[in-house]
Design brief:
By secondary structure, the chain is of the alpha/beta class. It has 16 helices and 15 strands. The strands form four sheets. A seven-stranded mixed beta sheet has the order 4-10-9-8-7-5-6, sandwiched between helices. Strands 11-12-15-14 form a four-stranded antiparallel beta sheet. Strand 7, helix 8 and strand 8 form a beta-alpha-beta unit. Helix 4 packs parallel to helix 11. It catalyses: (6R)-5,10-methylene-5,6,7,8-tetrahydrofolate + glycine + H2O = (6S)-5,6,7,8-tetrahydrofolate + L-serine. InterPro entries: PyrdxlP-dep_Trfase, PyrdxlP-dep_Trfase_major, PyrdxlP-dep_Trfase_small, Ser_HO-MeTrfase, Ser_HO-MeTrfase-like, Ser_HO-MeTrfase_PLP_BS, SHMT-like_dom. Its EC number is 2.1.2.1. Keywords: Amino-acid biosynthesis, Cytoplasm, One-carbon metabolism, Pyridoxal phosphate, Transferase.
Length: 420
C-alpha cells in the first residue's frame, strides 16, 4: 500500500485513491529507467502533503503581501540557505514552479523580446526552453542553436565559439535533457565572457550529481544556474534558480512578480527536506553509484551491439540509437514497458525519423540506484533490454511476458520509498 497511508483519501474519493495505489504499485513493480524520474524519500512525500499547501505567500521571506507568514518564512529561508550551502552559491530562489518557468525567468531578467539567445538544439540533446522553435523561447527571441558533431556525438566547443562570435547572443544556455557526457562549464564560460553573454547552466538532470560530487560544478563559471529539484536531486517536482550576487535581484524580480504569484509552500518545504538529505555523506555515495551503474549498463549494452550516442556516458544518462537494430524507439519503448522496463523513446542527433517516432531510447539510472540496484545487476538489465528489443522486432510477446515476470521477481527484493 501507499506510504504514507491515504486512508482519508480512500474514504473521501475512492476512485482517486485506487488510482494512486495503482500508480504506487506500478512504480514498485517496474525497473524505472526514465532519466528524469526518481523516488523521493517518505519524508519528502510527507512534506508535500502538509497544511503548508493552504497558505498564500506572495513575495519573499520578510517581504510578503499576506499576513500569517510566521512559519512560512522560516521554511523558505531554510530551503534557500540549504541550497546556498549545498551548491556553494551566493543566491538561491526556490520559488519557481518547475524547470521551464525557471528558465523563462532568466529570459525575463536578462533579455528583451527579439534579442538573440543561444542554446543547444533539441534534437542534439537540448531543452525546449533553450530556444527551440516550438517553444515560446524560440518564438519570442531570435534563437541560434548549436549541436553535436556527427562523428563523436559531442559538442564541438570551437564551433560554439564561432557561432557565439558571429551571433553575439545576450544569453547562452549550456546543459540539456539528453546529454550523456560531462559539460565543460569553464569552456562555455570563456565563450560567454568573450561575447558579453550571460551564461546559464541548466543542470536539471545532473543537479544531484553536482551536489554529490559526481559531476563538475558550474559554480564560479556560470553566472546563473537553473535546475529542477527532482531527477537526480531526488526532491519534489519543483525548481530553483541560483546565481552570483550580481544577478540575484534581477532574477528574484523576474520570478515574482514577473512570472508567478504565490509560491507552493508545501513544495518549498519538500525541497528543503531533499536538500538536507543531499547534504549528507550517504548522498555522495548515491551520486557516485548512479554514475557507476550508468557506465556498467552502457558497457553491457555496447557488448550486445547497441549503438550509444557518443559511445557511452559520463553521468546518469544513456542515449541509444536503435538504427542498427531495425526498430524504432517508440515500438521498442512500448515493448519494454510491457516487459516491466520503463524508459522513453527519444530523438538522437541527426535522426532521420520524426520526433514522435524517433530512432532512439533514453535511459537513466537514478531511480534504480535509489532502489539499491548495483553494477552487478546491470549486465542482466542489458540482457533483458536486448531480448525485448529483439522480441519487439519479431512480435514475440512470449519473451516480453517472460522478462516481465523476471523483472518483478528481481524487484521484490528491493524496497521502494512510498510503497510498503
Amino acid at each position: 500500500m501507499h506510504q504514507p497511508a491515504i486512508s482519508h483519501l480512500a474514504a473521501s474519493d475512492p476512485e482517486i485513491a485506487d488510482l494512486v495505489e495503482a500508480e504506487a504499485k506500478r512504480q514498485h513493480d517496474k525497473i524505472r529507467l526514465i532519466a528524469s524520474e526518481n523516488y523521493v524519500s517518505t519524508a519528502v512525500l510527507e512534506a508535500t502533503g502538509t497544511v503548508l499547501t493552504n497558505k498564500y505567500s506572495e513575495g519573499y521571506a520578510g517581504k510578503r503581501y499576506y499576513e500569517g507568514q510566521q512559519f512560512i518564512d522560516p521554511v523558505e529561508r531554510l530551503a534557500v540557505q540549504r541550497a546556498k550551502d549545498l551548491f556553494g552559491v551566493d543566491h538561491a530562489n526556490v520559488q519557481p514552479y518547475s524547470g521551464s518557468p525557471a528558465n523563462l525567468a532568466v529570459y525575463l531578467a536578462f533579455a528583451e523580446p527579439g534579442d538573440t539567445i543561444m542554446g543547444m538544439a533539441l534534437p542534439s540533446g537540448g531543452h525546449l526552453t533553450h530556444g527551440w522553435s516550438v517553444s515560446a523561447t524560440g518564438k519570442w527571441f531570435r534563437s541560434v542553436q548549436y549541436g553535436v558533431r556527427k562523428d563523436t556525438g559531442r559538442v564541438d566547443l570551437d564551433e560554439v565559439r564561432d557561432l557565439a562570435r558571429a551571433e553575439r547572443p545576450k544569453v547562452i544556455f549550456c546543459g540539456g535533457t539528453a546529454i550523456p557526457r560531462t559539460i565543460d562549464f569553464p569552456a562555455f564560460a570563456e565563450i560567454a565572457q568573450e561575447v558579453g553573454a550571460v551564461l546559464v547552466a541548466d543542470i536539471a538532470h545532473i543537479a544531484g550529481l553536482v551536489a554529490g560530487g559526481a559531476h563538475p560544478s558550474p559554480v564560479g563559471h556560470a553566472q546563473v544556474i537553473t535546475t529542477t529539484t527532482h531527477k537526480t536531486l531526488r526532491g519534489p517536482r519543483g525548481a530553483m534558480i541560483m546565481s552570483d550576487a550580481a544577478h540575484a535581484k534581477a532574477l528574484d524580480k523576474a520570478v515574482f512578480p514577473g512570472l508567478q504569484g504565490g509560491p507552493h509552500n508545501h513544495t518549498t518545504a519538500a525541497i528543503a527536506v531533499a536538500l538536507r538529505e543531499a547534504s549528507q555523506p550517504a548522498f555522495q555515495d548515491y551520486a557516485h553509484a548512479i554514475v557507476a551503474n550508468a557506465k556498467a549498463l552502457a558497457e553491457a549494452l555496447v557488448e550486445r551491439g547497441f549503438d550509444l550516442v557518443s559511445g557511452g556516458t559520463d553521468n546518469h544518462l544513456i542515449l541509444v540509437d536503435l538504427g542498427n537494430k531495425g526498430i524504432g524507439g517508440k515500438p521498442a519503448a512500448k515493448a519494454l514497458d510491457r516487459a516491466g522496463i520503463e524508459l522513453n523513446y527519444n530523438t538522437v542527433p541527426f535522426d532521420p525519423r520524426k520526433p514522435f517516432d524517433p530512432s532512439g531510447i533514453r535511459l537513466g539510472t537514478a531511480a534504480i540506484t535509489t532502489r539499491g540496484l548495483g553494477v552487478e545487476q546491470m549486465p542482466q538489465l542489458a540482457a533483458w533490454i536486448d531480448a525485448v528489443v529483439r522480441a519487439a522486432d519479431e512480435q514475440d510477446e512470449a519473451t516480453v511476458e517472460r522478462v516481465a515476470g523476471e523483472v518483478a521477481e528481481l524487484l521484490a527484493g528491493y524496497p521502494m520509498p512510498g510503497w510498503a
